[in-house]
């Protein structure tokens, strides 16, 4: 969906993020910035029917993320190998992001300042460099 279509429909389908640690490719380059798209019914159905997910239900996460993470730094293709080789903290981050955008429809959480008690929203997708 283009930015124009998004603006006219009000439906956001892509969510930029910044991984806490980053994917380290075979050349030692770290990739932290990426984009995740909303999951479709086909994403959910296809991955559940995959033999790898049937043999190991935990692998369903890898398959879903490989389908919905559309970009990650300059990695040519985000596939199951890339997702399998993420640090555990980055995998947990993407699992939470997936849940937030597909179940709740947003990446913001409400927080309160511990000093003054002021309530505000924080975007947990961390699309600013160094965010998480």
Uncertain residue ranges:
127-132
The helix/strand series, from N terminus to C terminus, equals HEEHHHEHHEE
Please give the largest β-sheet: 3 strands, antiparallel
Number of strands: 5
Provide the spatial order of strands within the biggest beta sheet: 1-2-3
Strand content: 25-35%
What general outline do the C-alpha atoms trace? globular
The level of helicity is 40-55%
Q: Structural class of the secondary elements?
A: alpha+beta
Please give the radius of gyration in angstroms. Answer: 16 Å
What is the first-to-last residue Cα distance? 25 Å
Number of helices: 6
Roughly what is the average pLDDT, rounded to an integer? Answer: 85
Short overview:
40% of the residues lie in helices and 25% in strands.
Descriptive overview:
- 19% of the residues are buried.
- This protein has 6 helices and 5 strands, in the order αββαααβααββ.
- The protein has a 3-stranded antiparallel sheet with strand order 1-2-3.
- The longest helix has 17 residues, at 88-104.
- The protein has helices at 3-9, 41-49, 51-55, 59-68, 80-84, 88-104; strands at 14-24, 30-37, 69-72, 108-112, 119-123.
Keywords:
132 residues, alpha+beta, three-stranded antiparallel β-sheet, two-stranded antiparallel sheet, 6 helices, 5 strands
């Amino acid at each position: 969906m283009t930015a124009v279509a998004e603006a006219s429909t009000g439906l956001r389908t892509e969510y930029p993020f910044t991984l806490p640690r980053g994917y380290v490719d075979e050349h030692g380059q770290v990739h932290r910035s990426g984009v995740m798209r909303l999951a479709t019914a086909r994403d959910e159905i296809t991955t559940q029917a995959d033999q790898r997910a049937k043999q190991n239900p935990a692998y369903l996460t890898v398959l879903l993320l490989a389908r919905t993470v559309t970009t990650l730094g300059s990695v040519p293709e985000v596939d199951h190998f890339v997702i399998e080789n993420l640090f555990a903290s980055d995998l947990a981050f993407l699992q939470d992001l997936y849940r937030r955008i597909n179940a709740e429809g947003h990446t913001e959480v409400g927080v309160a300042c511990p000093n003054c008690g002021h309530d505000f929203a924080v975007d947990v997708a961390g699309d600013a460099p160094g965010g998480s």
